[in-house]
Amino acid sequence: MFDPLLLKTFVTVVDEDGFSRAAQKLHLTQSAVSGHVRRLEEQIGKPLLTRTTRSQQLTADGERLVSYARTILALNRDAWTDLTRTPFHGRLRIGVSEDFVEPRLLRTVQDFAAQYPGMKIEVQVNIPGTLLALMKQGHLDVVIGSLCETSETGLLLWQEPLVWAWSAQPVAGLPTPLPLALFPEPCPYREAALTRLAQAGIAQRTAMLCSSTAGLRAAALAGFAVAPMPLSQLGQGLAVIGAEQGLPDLPDAQCRLFTSPDADQAIVAAVTQLIVEYCSKRRV
C-alpha cells in the first residue's frame, strides 16, 4: 500500500520541477523530501527519477506512478470532502482583483458551490486595496488580489515581475513627462510605479485613468501611455521597456489570498484549498 504522504511529496517534486521548490511548498526540509521519494523507490524496487546535479527526469515507472498518484490523491480528497462536509446555507462573498478574473476560475468556484445546495456565491471585482477595505468592513469573506511590497498578511499564491508595458512598435523615444495609464487609488501597481519614478527623479503625468486591465492594455498598445502591469498580462502587441529607456525596475506583483476571521472557517478553508490547487496549475 502506498502512503498518501509519500505520494503527495512525489507529485509535488514533479510539479515543482525539483526537490528544493517542493520542500518550500510542503514546508519540509529538502532531505525529508528526498527521503520520501527514496522510500517510494524502495517500496516498488525501481527508480522513479533520473537525477543530475541540476535537474531530474521521470523514468518510465515514474511516469506511471505519478499518474496513479494524482488519481489516488484526488480520490482521497474527494472522500474526505464528501464524508466531512457539513451543510452550509448562505452567501460566500469573494473579492477578486480585475487581473485575476478568468473564466476557468469562475467555473471552478461554480463547481465548488454545486457541492453545497444552500450556498450562493457572490463575486465582486475591484482593485485589491478596495477589496481588502471591504473585507475589513465585513462585506467580503475571501479576497484574491495582487500587492507590491506589502505588510499585509495573506497566503502567497504566486509572484511575478511587475513591468512597464509599452507598444511593441518601435518608437523614437519616450515622451517627457512620462505619460502613464494607471488604475485609480488605492492600487498597488499605481503606488509602486509613482514611487519608483519619484525616487529616480523622472517626471510623469497621468494620461489615462483606467478601471480595467483592458484599458491599460489599450493605452499601451496605442503608444498613448506606459502602463505598469504584471508580466503575464501583457499579451500580443505589447513589449517590456525598462533600463534601456531609463526607467527604474518595479517590485514583483504578489498574488495573495486573504480570508475574513468572521467567515465560516470550514468553508473558507475549503475555498482556500480550491484556490491553491487552481493556482498550482496556473503557470505565470
UniProtKB/TrEMBL annotation:
The keyword Membrane does not apply. Coiled coil: none annotated. Residues 2-59 form the HTH lysR-type domain. Gene3D superfamilies: Periplasmic binding protein-like II, Winged helix-like DNA-binding domain superfamily/Winged helix DNA-binding domain. The keyword DNA-binding applies. One of its GO terms (molecular function) is DNA-binding transcription factor activity. Keywords: DNA-binding, Transcription, Transcription regulation. InterPro entries: LTTR, LysR_HTH_N, LysR_subst-bd, WH-like_DNA-bd_sf, WH_DNA-bd_sf. Belongs to the LysR transcriptional regulatory family. PANTHER family: HTH-TYPE TRANSCRIPTIONAL REGULATOR LRHA-RELATED, TRANSCRIPTIONAL REGULATOR. This is DNA-binding transcriptional regulator, LysR family.
